[in-house]
Fold these 2 entries.
Entry 1:
Amino acid sequence: MNLAATFVAQLVVFLILVWFAVKVVWPPLKKALDDRIGRIVAAMEAAERGNAELENASGRVNAKVAESQEEVRKLLNDYDRRAQTIIADARRTATVEAERIIASAKMEANQLLDRARVQLRAQLAEIAVVGAANILVKEIDATEHARLLAQLKDDLKE
Amino acid sequence: MASNIDAAAGHAPTPTEYIVHHLTHLSSRHQESIVDFSVINFDTVFWSVTVGVIACLFMWMGARRATPNVPGRLQSFVEMLVEMVDDQSKAIVHGNRRFIAPLALTVFVWVVLMNAMDFLPVDLFSTTFRWLGLESHLPYFRVVPTADLNGTLGMSLGVLGLMIYYSLKIKGMGGWLHELFTAPFGPWLAPFNLLLNLIEYAAKTVSLGMRLFGNMYAGELLFLLIALLGSMATAAGFLGHVVAGTAWAIFHILIVVLQAFIFMMLTLVYIGQSHEGH
């Protein structure tokens, strides 16, 4: 048998096998590997996108929360201010009313005082006349009497 | 030209001499009996260790370059292997797989690479040695460690050791002995149970080693027979060799991977059985 001839044939077979492996076995294997890598890349991108979206969303939520807090603060301020105004108004109204009541009460008191004074004057005159009559024990001219009284009244009025 | 080479080689071997030569191991001395543990087949040891180192380097490179980011093709390939083996071990072994899954991965990659040595031209090394004048130092040199019964039975003995180890670990000495004597026929047939279990262990071990050896040995033998076609040094012989050799080599791709897969699966199955009571 010829060892060289069979070795040549074996080398040819080996080269064909290598060619076969490169042409037929490797491509589907490569495709499977690349598909797997592609899936991993896609999954990682999706995860990254998800993360970014989450970050966005949490940013939006934070902004919204800050905004509504600001709004609440503004509303509270408004109400506070309005309450202050209402209190101030009420105080002013009350003061005015009190002044008015005091003034009218004062006026009434003055009137009462005046009236009492007039009555007092009248009674005093009468008492004086009675006193005088008693002292004099003597009829006095009624006309003169009335005139004197009126004069006295006038004098007292001043 | 043929006569030149024949003259240079002294005498051309007959087909029988050729095949016997290619099926003889480079061993410490000639093996006389069927079982002789004093004989070491250097070629099997050399190639199984070399290929094992290559397998470890390959997996190590895949692991070293591993990133949590987008993997390269090498990492992706190793990851696919790991995922495949892990899925299988998950389905078969119920228990702690911290050692078993990596073991199965190692077995698979190692056996694939050892089987793949069959793709090399059968005369590659003997012809190279003849050119380099190393013929007298390396008269025999077989390159497929799994086509040596010593290699495959060595591995299946390792699996037997793991079967016993996991039986003891999971069931304890008492539990395992109890199972050996009582399963499957109950305590009244204890001797038969023991005999049956011992036969089962032996059958598992021998069949595991023999199956891989037989397939790879047959594949190698067929390559040798095809090589005889080419050695006729005629156009028909050359053509026949190329056609048959190519067909067998391409088919052999399937056998190489399939036998490695079967060896890995059976390793897992046997170890998985050690985890479960009868």
Entry 2:
Amino acid sequence: MYYEPVIGLEVHIQLNTDTKIFCSCSTLFGAVPNSQVCPVCLGMPGSLPVLNRKVMEYAVRLSLATGCKINNTSILARKNYFYPDLPKSYQISQFEEPFAEHGELVVKIEGQPSRRIGITRIHMEEDAGKSLHAESFVGKDESLVDVNRCGVPLLEVVSDPDFRTPQEAYEYLVHLRQIVVYLGICDGNMEEGSLRCDANVSLRPIGTTTLGTKTELKNMNSFRAVEKALEYEIHRQEMILENGGVIEQQTLLWDANRNVAESMRTKEYSHDYRYFPDPDLAPISMTAGDIEQVRANIPELPEAKRERFMRQFSLPEYDAQVLTESPKVAEYFEQTALRVKDKKAASNWIMGNLLRSLKERNEHLHQLKLTPAFLAELLTLIEQGTISGSSAKEVFEECLDSGKSPTLIVEEKGLLQISDLDAIEQIVSSIIEKNPRDVQDYLNGNEKVLGFFIGQIMRATQGKANPKLVNSILRKKLALLSK
Amino acid sequence: MSVTLEQVDVIARLSKLEFNQEEKSKFVEQFNQILQYMEKLNELDTEPIEPTYNVLDISNVTRPDELKPWLSQDEALQNAPRTKHGFFSVPKVIG
């Protein structure tokens, strides 16, 4: 029998606010343990949580960007469970009346029709702390707890069970990450766990609509790991069903080192969260006016930007796609392109030399000494024939290093392209005189020698001769000899 | 609806509390009394009434996203029975 996977994802998006969701402690990553805490996030009796206004605004942004309907009233609830990284013994989250519902994201995979993935709900909640079990300094009978992350704001995005392949799940995650980075609500940093994803998966015979028993996959620390874990689990369930077995509903932990998912043995009753409205927190109400105010400030999203780049700068789809992957690169391109005639050249330089140099130098775009204005200046120098392509590369590198203007670098290094007809003719003539045998070769019909001559000429001018002029003068002179 | 001994067991387990048989039996009785009392509310028709999520008629109690001084690590840990390297040390939770 053939089976069809049914996959749903739960993504936790860590918001990049300065303070926590219910108290004014810092959310900065990487601080020494238990140094960014207060009575509220430590769960001290008598402390009172107060909602961070920015979390509401960010929740509106994400809801609008994913086409969700924002509920007029939503409430914060206590999700009760006992674990040492949760000092209050409950997590403030949302259960009934979540912040927003019924949205969608469209996932595109090359060569396949677009897929619409429904979004069940978006709700806000607080993160839990971190517990250490395996580190060398942790004793045999203890676990160590750091409460710094307690109360860091999260938005949880729950998808409908609409994915049919692990690849779709992967593409959705990439797309969602891109959106939250564009919205400026999350730094998108995977190493620091700014996006975390759990997956639910079940199988059913193709052509049927009843859902099979699902398992939950946790502990994937990259989008690729989500894809791999899903592939693994689909295969595992398939084997069981093929052999007439039954799928047991359980939670599996992905082990990225061994590429296996293993059952997390949880105690009975652990999933009885006993949600109830948190009496310490007032309901959240959202008027149409509040929502419109946020909508007006939503930045252009990746898809819209991609289409605009194709339209406004006549870029091929591939270029627009690469340039809009990150909002910073897109901004850099736009600032450059607006200053030059040849938009495609700007795209080529940024997609090629610039992105490569960033990677090699391990630098960030905003730290670059080569500003969009400088890159535009460089491109204009090429356009006007002031410098040759090979000199341009040299100016580019120098500008990255020193931050001097391209015009200044060209002057200092004497890279002005030789476009002086007389000067080039003289050099061409001397090269022809020095290589009579190659000239004869050419006259006998060996066109390849032309490359040799051009190489010689460029070397004699340290790459500064205008290649177009060199080419035409060389051909003219050789043609004269053949008569 | 009435509470059974098994349900009291579950609630005790979820609350990480331990009781002897005598206490549990007493809880069965008390829980049932409480529920019976609450049953009275079911006599009212609450169909057209919005649930009361909060007894105060307020919403959107918020604060700006601005840092305020918080505790030092020493202060945070001062009431903890056991600490290590700036962490809270608790009985091992997973094997």
